[in-house]
Amino acid sequence: MADPAPDAEPSPPEPQSQSRAMRRLKALVNWQTLLAALVALVASVIPALITPDAGASSPGTFPETATHTPADPKISIASWTETSSARSATTYVFTGTVTNLPDIAEIHVVIKSPTSATSTSAGAAGEQWLVSPPAEVLQDNRWKVTWTVHQRPLSGQWVAVVTGGNPAAMCEPLNECIRAMLQEDGPNAKGVYSTATIGSRPDGQ
Q: What is the pLDDT of residues 94-138, one digit of tens each?
């Protein structure tokens, strides 16, 4: 009986230095792959950080809504008439236009009181100016005041005023507060936004 073929001789083991080199090469490849992934991630994040949001303001600036302020109201007098009636009463009708009228505001016409020059005390009835009723605000920015005066002013200037101011800084109720301040200080009263002045008599009389 023939002898069995001898087993193949096992491969000689790899030298220890070659095994270590392979492990280092694999580790280097893994680190290079990880580093490339990190670089790609950073490259995608940085533009998002430095690109300003469309709705955000740039440093040192403010959104338009923060700097916008409403335009001041402007008033003008277009015409006025006077009609005398019995019992020495005179009815005046003033018309004009106003723009940018605030929600909390009134239009009045004032004139220096004919008795204020002879008053010996500023507290005499507390009235140095005559004050009309509030104007009726019509369409197309028009306004109208109808005012019956029992003591007709003989001189002075009629002044239309837009007043109201900040209600938090005034007394209550607001309409009485407005009238009291106009009676005392006329067009120079606190809370007056705009004024318009015309001559002392209508139609050049």
A: 999 999 998 888 999 999 876 644 433 333 444 589 999 999 999
CB 104 within 8 A of CB 174: yes
Give the C-alpha separation, 43 to 39, whole Å: 6
Using alpha carbons, select from 59, 67, 93 the residue that is nearest to residue 78.
93
- Rg from Cα positions in the chain: 44
* Chain mean position to CA 153: 40
Is 80 exceeded by the pLDDT of residue 69? no
User: Cα separation of 80 and 91, whole Å?
Assistant: 10
CA distances (Å), 171 to each of 180, 186, 189, in order? Answer: 10, 17, 14
CA distance 194 to 186: 12
- Look at residue 7 and give its three-state secondary structure: coil
